[in-house]
Specification:
mainly alpha; Rna Polymerase Sigma Factor, Chain: A; Arc Repressor Mutant, subunit A; about 65% helix
Protein backbone atom coordinates (compact mmCIF):
# COMPACT_ATOMS: atom_id res chain seq x y z
CA UNK A 1 0.00 0.00 0.00
CA UNK A 2 1.40 3.39 -0.95
CA UNK A 3 1.01 6.48 1.19
CA UNK A 4 -1.65 7.73 -1.20
CA UNK A 5 -3.69 4.58 -0.49
CA UNK A 6 -3.34 4.81 3.28
CA UNK A 7 -6.41 6.53 4.79
CA UNK A 8 -4.24 7.72 7.69
CA UNK A 9 -2.16 9.72 5.17
CA UNK A 10 1.30 9.61 6.81
CA UNK A 11 2.65 11.93 4.11
CA UNK A 12 0.61 14.77 5.66
CA UNK A 13 2.85 14.74 8.72
CA UNK A 14 1.94 14.90 12.39
CA UNK A 15 -1.58 15.40 13.69
CA UNK A 16 -0.84 19.01 14.52
CA UNK A 17 0.02 19.74 10.89
CA UNK A 18 -3.27 18.20 9.77
CA UNK A 19 -5.17 20.22 12.38
CA UNK A 20 -3.64 23.41 11.01
CA UNK A 21 -4.82 22.54 7.50
CA UNK A 22 -8.33 21.70 8.72
CA UNK A 23 -8.49 25.06 10.50
CA UNK A 24 -7.24 26.63 7.29
CA UNK A 25 -10.31 25.41 5.44
CA UNK A 26 -9.48 21.86 4.33
CA UNK A 27 -12.26 20.28 6.37
CA UNK A 28 -12.17 17.03 4.43
CA UNK A 29 -8.80 16.29 6.06
CA UNK A 30 -10.54 15.91 9.43
CA UNK A 31 -11.34 12.37 8.29
CA UNK A 32 -7.60 11.65 8.44
CA UNK A 33 -7.58 12.53 12.14
CA UNK A 34 -10.65 10.37 12.73
CA UNK A 35 -9.03 7.36 11.10
CA UNK A 36 -5.73 7.89 12.90
CA UNK A 37 -7.37 7.89 16.32
CA UNK A 38 -10.39 5.58 15.99
CA UNK A 39 -8.74 2.65 17.77
CA UNK A 40 -7.34 4.82 20.57
CA UNK A 41 -10.75 6.41 21.23
CA UNK A 42 -12.51 3.06 20.97
CA UNK A 43 -10.25 1.50 23.57
CA UNK A 44 -10.52 4.47 25.94
CA UNK A 45 -14.32 4.72 25.71
CA UNK A 46 -14.86 0.96 25.99
CA UNK A 47 -12.66 0.80 29.07
CA UNK A 48 -14.94 3.31 30.78
CA UNK A 49 -18.29 2.03 29.55
CA UNK A 50 -17.40 -1.62 30.14
CA UNK A 51 -19.34 -2.85 27.10
CA UNK A 52 -19.48 -2.23 23.39
CA UNK A 53 -23.04 -0.99 22.92
CA UNK A 54 -22.62 2.78 23.24
CA UNK A 55 -18.97 3.12 22.27
CA UNK A 56 -19.41 4.23 18.66
CA UNK A 57 -21.95 6.88 19.67
CA UNK A 58 -19.50 8.23 22.25
CA UNK A 59 -16.68 8.25 19.71
CA UNK A 60 -18.76 10.15 17.17
CA UNK A 61 -19.82 12.70 19.77
CA UNK A 62 -16.20 13.19 20.83
CA UNK A 63 -15.07 13.80 17.26
CA UNK A 64 -17.88 16.31 16.66
CA UNK A 65 -17.07 18.12 19.92
CA UNK A 66 -13.39 18.20 19.02
CA UNK A 67 -14.14 19.64 15.59
CA UNK A 68 -16.43 22.31 17.06
CA UNK A 69 -13.65 23.39 19.42
CA UNK A 70 -10.68 22.70 17.17
CA UNK A 71 -9.63 26.34 17.25
CA UNK A 72 -9.10 25.92 21.01
CA UNK A 73 -6.47 23.22 20.53
CA UNK A 74 -3.00 24.40 21.47
CA UNK A 75 -0.14 22.74 19.65
CA UNK A 76 2.07 22.64 22.74
CA UNK A 77 -0.07 19.67 23.83
CA UNK A 78 -0.32 16.40 21.89
CA UNK A 79 -3.46 16.31 19.77
CA UNK A 80 -3.93 12.63 20.67
CA UNK A 81 -4.06 13.47 24.38
CA UNK A 82 -6.42 16.41 23.83
CA UNK A 83 -8.76 14.28 21.73
CA UNK A 84 -8.66 11.32 24.12
CA UNK A 85 -9.55 13.60 27.01
CA UNK A 86 -12.67 14.75 25.14
CA UNK A 87 -13.64 11.13 24.44
CA UNK A 88 -13.10 10.09 28.06
CA UNK A 89 -15.30 12.94 29.29
CA UNK A 90 -17.99 11.95 26.78
CA UNK A 91 -17.80 8.33 27.94
CA UNK A 92 -18.12 9.32 31.59
CA UNK A 93 -21.12 11.49 30.71
CA UNK A 94 -22.77 8.57 28.89
CA UNK A 95 -22.06 6.29 31.84
CA UNK A 96 -23.61 8.75 34.31
CA UNK A 97 -26.67 9.05 32.09
CA UNK A 98 -27.03 5.27 31.92
CA UNK A 99 -26.95 5.03 35.72
CA UNK A 100 -29.84 7.49 35.92
CA UNK A 101 -32.03 5.43 33.62
CA UNK A 102 -35.00 3.80 35.35
CA UNK A 103 -34.99 0.69 33.21
CA UNK A 104 -31.94 -1.48 33.59
CA UNK A 105 -31.41 -4.04 30.89
CA UNK A 106 -28.82 -6.75 30.81
CA UNK A 107 -26.29 -5.94 28.09
CA UNK A 108 -26.42 -8.31 25.15
CA UNK A 109 -23.06 -9.35 23.83
CA UNK A 110 -23.65 -9.28 20.07
CA UNK A 111 -20.87 -10.77 18.01
CA UNK A 112 -20.00 -8.68 14.99
CA UNK A 113 -19.15 -10.35 11.67
CA UNK A 114 -15.51 -9.50 12.32
CA UNK A 115 -15.59 -11.33 15.65
CA UNK A 116 -17.22 -14.40 14.11
CA UNK A 117 -14.36 -14.79 11.67
CA UNK A 118 -11.62 -14.43 14.28
CA UNK A 119 -9.97 -17.22 16.21
CA UNK A 120 -8.68 -15.13 19.10
CA UNK A 121 -9.68 -17.20 22.10
CA UNK A 122 -6.86 -15.94 24.28
CA UNK A 123 -7.50 -12.32 23.41
CA UNK A 124 -11.22 -12.75 24.03
CA UNK A 125 -10.39 -14.21 27.45
CA UNK A 126 -8.21 -11.21 28.16
CA UNK A 127 -10.92 -8.77 27.13
CA UNK A 128 -13.40 -10.47 29.45
CA UNK A 129 -10.89 -10.34 32.29
CA UNK A 130 -10.28 -6.64 31.68
CA UNK A 131 -14.02 -5.97 31.55
CA UNK A 132 -14.38 -7.67 34.94
CA UNK A 133 -11.96 -5.28 36.63
CA UNK A 134 -13.31 -2.46 38.81
CA UNK A 135 -14.04 0.59 36.65
CA UNK A 136 -11.22 2.76 37.99
CA UNK A 137 -8.67 -0.03 37.46
CA UNK A 138 -9.91 -0.88 33.97
CA UNK A 139 -9.72 2.72 32.81
CA UNK A 140 -6.10 3.09 33.89
CA UNK A 141 -5.06 -0.33 32.61
CA UNK A 142 -6.44 0.22 29.11
CA UNK A 143 -5.00 3.72 28.73
CA UNK A 144 -1.57 2.74 30.08
CA UNK A 145 -1.06 -0.86 28.95
CA UNK A 146 -3.28 -1.32 25.92
CA UNK A 147 -3.18 2.23 24.54
CA UNK A 148 0.39 2.86 25.78
CA UNK A 149 -0.27 6.34 27.14
CA UNK A 150 2.24 7.71 29.64
CA UNK A 151 1.49 8.11 33.33
CA UNK A 152 1.26 11.87 32.86
CA UNK A 153 -1.10 11.57 29.89
CA UNK A 154 -3.32 9.09 31.72
CA UNK A 155 -3.46 11.33 34.78
CA UNK A 156 -4.37 14.31 32.61
CA UNK A 157 -7.08 12.45 30.71
CA UNK A 158 -8.70 10.98 33.85
CA UNK A 159 -8.15 14.06 36.08
CA UNK A 160 -6.39 12.07 38.79
CA UNK A 161 -2.90 12.35 40.35
CA UNK A 162 -0.03 10.49 38.73
CA UNK A 163 0.53 8.47 41.93
CA UNK A 164 -3.07 7.28 41.70
CA UNK A 165 -2.46 6.13 38.14
CA UNK A 166 0.53 4.10 39.28
CA UNK A 167 -1.32 2.55 42.22
CA UNK A 168 -4.38 1.60 40.17
CA UNK A 169 -2.24 0.13 37.41
CA UNK A 170 -0.29 -1.97 39.91
CA UNK A 171 -3.48 -3.33 41.47
CA UNK A 172 -5.11 -3.95 38.07
CA UNK A 173 -2.13 -5.95 36.90
CA UNK A 174 -2.22 -7.98 40.09
CA UNK A 175 -5.87 -8.88 39.54
CA UNK A 176 -5.16 -9.91 35.96
CA UNK A 177 -2.24 -12.09 37.00
CA UNK A 178 -4.61 -14.00 39.24
CA UNK A 179 -6.97 -14.70 36.33
CA UNK A 180 -4.70 -15.16 33.33
CA UNK A 181 -1.57 -16.96 32.31
CA UNK A 182 1.52 -15.08 31.14
CA UNK A 183 0.72 -16.14 27.59
CA UNK A 184 -2.69 -14.44 27.75
CA UNK A 185 -1.12 -11.25 29.06
CA UNK A 186 1.20 -11.16 26.06
CA UNK A 187 -1.88 -10.72 23.85
CA UNK A 188 -2.81 -7.39 25.49
CA UNK A 189 -1.75 -5.35 22.46
CA UNK A 190 -4.43 -7.08 20.37
CA UNK A 191 -7.29 -6.41 22.78
CA UNK A 192 -10.16 -4.17 21.68
CA UNK A 193 -9.25 -3.91 18.01
CA UNK A 194 -11.33 -1.52 15.95
CA UNK A 195 -11.69 -3.18 12.58
CA UNK A 196 -11.95 -1.54 9.17
CA UNK A 197 -15.75 -1.77 8.67
CA UNK A 198 -16.38 -0.04 11.99
CA UNK A 199 -13.63 2.49 11.31
CA UNK A 200 -15.24 3.30 7.96
CA UNK A 201 -18.67 3.64 9.57
CA UNK A 202 -17.48 6.04 12.28
CA UNK A 203 -15.44 8.10 9.83
CA UNK A 204 -18.38 8.42 7.41
CA UNK A 205 -20.82 9.42 10.16
CA UNK A 206 -18.47 11.96 11.71
CA UNK A 207 -17.66 13.59 8.38
CA UNK A 208 -21.34 13.80 7.46
CA UNK A 209 -22.01 15.63 10.72
CA UNK A 210 -19.07 18.04 10.69
CA UNK A 211 -18.94 19.12 7.04
CA UNK A 212 -21.91 21.42 7.56
CA UNK A 213 -20.61 22.81 10.85
CA UNK A 214 -18.60 25.90 11.57
CA UNK A 215 -15.84 25.95 14.14
CA UNK A 216 -17.25 26.78 17.56
CA UNK A 217 -20.74 25.74 16.46
Amino acid sequence: MTNADDPKRPELGADEAVVARVLGGERELYEVLVRRHNERLYRAARAILGRDGDVEDVMQEAYVQAFAHLDQFRAEARFATWLTRIAVHAAFARKRKAKREVEVEEPVDVLTPERRTESREITMLLERAIDALPDSFREVLVLRTVEDMTVAETAEVLDIPEDTVKTRLFRARGLLREALTEHALSAAADAYRFHAPRCNRVAATVMERILGMGFGA
